Amino acid sequence: MQDILSISQELSRGLFVTISILIASSLFAYLMGFISGLLRLSKHTVIRKFTGLYIELFRGTSLIVQLFWLYYAIPMLFGINLGSNWIIGVIAIGLNYGAYLSEVVRGSVEAVDDGQTEAAIALNLSSFQKMRYIILPQAVRMMLPEFGNYTIQMLKGTALVSLISLNDILYYGNILRSSNLSQAPLIYLVILIFYFVLALPLIFLTRKAEDISKKGVAN
Amino acid sequence: MTKPIVEYKDVHKSFGDVEVLKGIDLDIFPAEKIAVIGPSGSGKTTIIRMLMTLEEPTDGDIIVDGKNLWKMDKHGKMVEADEKHLREIRGDIGMVFQHFNLFPHMTILENCMTAPIHVKGEKKKEVKKRSIDMLERVGLGDKINNYPSQLSGGQKQRVAMARALVMRPKIMLFDEVTSALDPELVGEVLEVIRDIAKNDDMAMVLVTHEMDFALDVADKVLFLDDGVIAEQGSASDVIEHSENPRVQEFLSRFRS
Questions:
Q1: Is residue B256 scored above 70 in pLDDT?
Q2: Residues in domain ABC transmembrane type-1 (chain A) (predicted)?
Q3: Among candidates B149, B66, B80, which has minimal Cα distance to B108?
């Protein structure tokens, strides 16, 4: 018991990094998801293709390799400094999950019944007004559960930033284990519990989102 | 002689290889009530959907109030209309759909208020009053804060009519508005249309399968068959006295 407490105390030093990266990268991913998801629906082929390239590139390669690219390769190749490790972690996770979310955004917008578009045209709404007042409010309700699921995945994805020497929960766990090899099973157990407890409110919110999305959508 | 508010000039429409409309010529005069009847698949709905700008004609012109709906003048050349051009003209046209197409995330009052506020830029207070009046007129004054999912089919269709009327169109299109309703709910919807037809001076085009109703409200009836207007005239001419065998065959299915 004493051990668990002291391990927890050590791990909790990484809480701020894990949580702050989760919040920043999920906000960034939501933004990317909306922008690229809506661009995917553009009338212009070039815009659609270009956005598609981003999506497939980031969905089709692994997050950890993207993280290393941004951290090691790009600064060496182009001499661009992308900022602190924290910022690089946020960008990598945000771009990666933004690519997945864009498909959720696109799918939800397309899933709104055609009759809604027709009613909007019959009431003489502009394309923008139709999107803003009729389609998106319904599409967002449909997106909510999937956004919840991906946010839970992003929480777990943040553990990778320990590999670009950010001091998150896993980072402190690994440090602890290297100085105390016999405690490894216990340390990793406590780490699991940490992530699970952090995920609980997200799981709860996702459930709530499912209830909301069941109401108020025409399909 | 008054000028027609809408003119169809040799309008064709194909979906893929299938030609649904094979040359429609039609004048709609202000305040005129027209019923469009005919077998399913004859292109009835397509006629009014092109006027609402939901389908683009393959060929021919539709003139609304003297302006070409689907074509516009650009540096002396007629080109395909853009959204701005379509919006300028279709503001005078309203439509009620078979499946209501109410906005499920809004109360029925909000359903009515959205377009006048955002499209016409009218004052919220004024629009609210007019919307409530209209919802009372269709018998739903006590439901203004309900959501569409809480209403019956007949009530939903009455909201859809109020929503279209609040925009004060000059032409109202009705696309088989009772076809999706349970039989016992048809009457309440027809009653509202009858009320509009008798008391409002807008032109109305009704695609319908309700022959008695067409006889009652329509000034003119079009019988559409295989993509052409096969017969037209006063309601009693077409529905009661037509000698066209196709019309008689079609109507015989409604009499048992």
A1: no
A2: 15-204
A3: B149
The two tokens of residue B2 are: 């008054």
Of B52, B149, B163, the CB nearest to A121: B52
- Output the DSSP codes for A100-167: HHHHHHHHHHHHS-HHHHHHHHHTT--HHHIIIIIIHHHHHHHHHHHHHHHHHHHHHHGGGGGGGT--
Kindly list the domain boundaries of chain B, sorted by start residue.
6-92+169-252, 104-168
The CATH homologous superfamily of the domain defined by A2-214: MetI-like (1.10.3720.10)
CATH superfamily of B6-92+169-252: P-loop containing nucleotide triphosphate hydrolases (3.40.50.300)
Query: A129 contacts in B (CB within 8 Å)?
Result: 118-119
pLDDT digits (tens, 9 = 90+) for A50-94: 999 999 999 999 999 999 999 999 888 888 877 889 999 999 999
Low-confidence ranges of chain A (pLDDT < 70): 215-219
Tens digit of each residue's pLDDT (9 = 90 or more) over B207-220: 998 888 888 899 99
A133 to chain B, any CB pair closer than 8 A? The answer is yes
A124 with B97: Cβ contact below 8 A: no
Q: Of B170, B166, B28, B161, give the one whose Cα is nearest residue B98.
A: B161
Q: What is the pLDDT of residue B240?
A: 85
